[in-house]
Design a protein that fits this description.
Elements (H helix, E strand, L loop, with lengths): L1 E9 L4 E4 L12 E3 L10 E4 L2 E2 L4 E9 L2 H12 L20 E4 L3 E8 L2 E4 L5 E5 L2 E11 L2 E2 L5 E5 L1 H8 L7 E5 L11 E9 L5 E10 L4 E10 H18 L2 H7 L2 H10 L4 H6 L2
Antiparallel strand pairs: 1-6, 2-4, 3-4, 5-6, 7-8, 8-11, 9-10, 11-12, 11-13, 14-15, 15-16, 16-17
Helix pairs in contact: 2-3
Amino acid sequence: MLNLSLSATPAGEGLSIRHPHKLSSYNSGITTSTLFPRRKNAVFLTTPRRDRSKNICFNVKAQYLTPQEQNHQQQRFSSYESPFPSQPGQLPPRVYVGYSVYKGKAALTVEPRPPEFSPLDSGAFKLSKEGFVLLQFAPASGVRQYDWGRKQVFSLSVTEIGNIISLGARDSCEFFHDPFKGKSDEGRVRKVLKVEPLPDGSGHFFNLSVQNKLTNVDESIYIPITKAEFAVLVSSFNFVVPYLLGWHTFASSIKPEDANRANNTNPRSGAEFEWSR
């Protein structure tokens, strides 16, 4: 295992590397040192790398770790993989995350919702419903206060998320939802979300209009989103889309023996036939 570290030092000091490869592969001017004589698989090399604009040299250290040190490193970092460990036999606790934007006239929260899976007779699971991102708009009721009792919600599908991700600085998009489409109350609730560029090019407007004849609501809530806030949304959307599609569960379930068994069961599947052309 190779461990790297980088530090800036005053001019005149050098690049420090511990590496077991032969010195013949390096250029002249590199010297060896025995600062670490107990590591027989390590040598110490130095060479200056100067940033002339700032008159600074950088030190880079590379060290091969022993098996014991590798195990210690893995134990250190494994604790960061799951900040909420569960007891044996228990499901991990559910975690809620989101991103919020607060402005003078409204607030917006953005929260992912997971996909749903249904069991098959074979014991496997199949995606039954894609995940989505829930937008919640709340009008302001005072200075830095918001009336969440009057909030309006809009669920972004994966494709709609893709539309927002692809927006340029001057692009806009519009989505229409009817929660009761195909049902007896179709047309009685209309939701329209518009994402439009700000006139000065500093970001986008998110405008949600809701007409609900069932509850006599006709409301429009809009909130300006800056370039920085929009960048956070796009980055979050890019990250979460594969999870909304359930692809992470597929990737984590792949096992070499399963792939071999599937290929042996159906050696002339459509994919095999296509790639064997």
